[in-house]
Specification:
Strand content: 25-35%
Bound molecules: NADPH dihydro-nicotinamide-adenine-dinucleotide phosphate
Number of helices: 14
Length: about 400
């Protein structure tokens, strides 16, 4: 049984922490550390005395020295980073200093450039190898489960995968005209960026939301979806050998897109600081402050999510299609852990990744993307911990 330190106490962290406390066979001790300690204390108060010892702490995770000091004090087997992408590098530095394993769900993004790439974290490969510790990158749903699905398809269903389409559908309705399902700043930076996909060895860039398709999602029905750049495309293009094309599509409703367009047109999604009454403010950070807190959407969100991967390739000389997906219900998630399905579908895989690292079932050393590990123990645990997967051998294809 292991000791885990979770950094962050937001939507995703709350689910992961609920699941850690449910998984007493893997976790005996938990430290919750975040910028606002009262949020850590509220989680401790709710989940204390259920068999996992919980401690809390305040930490500024932008400060690697402060994180290293905290890790040294508590000596966990691994740190699960569920703060924001900006904190990835300082937390990895702290893990290196204290020789502690590291897990996250989103790749590093500098605060002043809306561009997420793995290059910054991949630059730590040698350092982690030398220190004899493992960094598991991207143990959420997408990235995360989508990489595990790809490794599973490769291991059990294909000799060669030619194309992967990752489809992320959220058919949930929270009743607000506009709100984001996870951190608004990160979400808006992601969807207002240019789209791109990998084809025949190179990246093809598109304008934001330029490519639209309609897809009939199992258990949900027809939805508009748009091609986006997404971080797992970068690692899967590298790790699924011989892959010819990978694309990522996410569904958006008309109301969301109309609001987003309007906010963009008036400059509210900009990350360039502006002067306001003698003070410098970043419009997107201000917008985040006026939008509903994603954590508050839990009790109001109804409907389902369906996230999965459609593979096309060759097995035993024959062409083959294969679709692996998970359907998750917002209201059931809220009933179980007090959060909607977006946080749930990220928090559960984060806990599973942490369990596999702590138990040494997955080990490096080095900096690894999730699809580099054996998918089978993760797939078993998805079924066990609330994200059962389904498969189809005759899926509708995306043009
Ligand atoms: P939230 O904004 O709800 O939570 C972020 C938490 O991090 C908050 O508790 C916040 O503290 C804390 N935090 C922020 N900055 C610091 C800092 N400098 N030091 C210490 N703590 C800090 O975000 P989410 O829970 O929605 O998202 C968490 C992560 O999960 C993000 O990286 C996001 O990109 C990722 N994600 C990944 C997905 C996937 O499928 N792979 C899907 C969805 C999200 P405070 O409470 O004080 O604000």
């Amino acid at each position: 049984m292991g000791k885990i330190m979770v950094i962050g106490a937001g939507g995703v962290a709350s689910v992961a922490i609920h699941k850690i406390v449910q998984n007493k066979e893997a976790f005996s001790e938990l430290v919750i550390a975040s910028r606002t300690k009262s949020k850590c204390d509220a989680l401790k108060e709710k989940l204390d005395e259920r068999g996992v010892k919980i401690e809390t702490a305040a930490v500024d995770a932008d400060d690697a020295k402060a994180v290293a000091k905290l890790i040294a004090k508590h000596n966990p087997d691994a740190v699960l980073n569920l703060a924001l992408p900006y904190q990835d590098l300082p937390i990895m530095d702290a893990c290196l200093e204290t020789k502690t394993n590291y897990i996250d769900t989103a790749n590093y993004e500098p605060k002043d450039t809306a561009k997420f790439e793995y290059k910054w974290q991949w630059a730590y490969r040698e350092k982690f190898e030398k220190a004899g510790i493992t960094a598991l990158l991207g143990s959420g749903f997408d990235p995360g489960v989508t990489g595990v699905f790809s490794a599973y398809a490769m291991k059990h269903h294909f000799d060669e995968i030619e194309t992967i389409d990752i489809l992320d559908c959220n058919a949930g309705d929270h009743g607000y005209p506009f709100a984001t399902n996870f951190n608004p700043e990160i979400n808006i930076r992601e969807v207002s960026a240019k789209g791109s996909y990998w084809e025949n060895g190179k990246w093809i860039e598109t304008e934001p939301m330029e490519i639209k398709r309609v897809y009939d999602f199992p258990e949900i029905g027809k939805k508009d979806m748009y091609l986006l750049h997404h971080e797992e495309l970068e690692s899967l293009a590298l790790n699924i050998k011989g892959i010819k094309r990978i694309r990522f599509f996410m569904t958006f409703g008309e109301s969301y897109l109309t609001h987003l367009r309007c906010l963009e047109n008036v400059g509210m999604t900009s990350i360039e600081p502006i002067d306001f009454n003698g003070q410098k403010i970043i419009p997107l950070e201000f917008l985040k402050a006026v939008l509903p807190d994603p954590a508050s959407l839990g009790p109001r969100t109804k409907g389902k999510t369906n996230i999965g991967c459609i593979f096309h390739g060759v097995k035993d000389g024959k062409e083959k299609d294969y679709y692996l997906y998970n359907v998750c219900d917002h209201e059931s998630c809220y009933k179980e852990v007090g959060s909607q399905a977006i946080s749930y579908t990220t928090g559960v895989p984060a806990m599973i990744g942490a369990e596999l690292i702590i138990k040494g079932i997955w080990k490096g050393p080095g900096v690894k993307n999730i699809e580099e590990f054996d998918p089978d123990p993760f797939m078993e645990r998805l079924n066990k911990w609330g994200l059962p997967w389904k498969e189809s051998f005759d899926p509708e294809k995306v043009e």
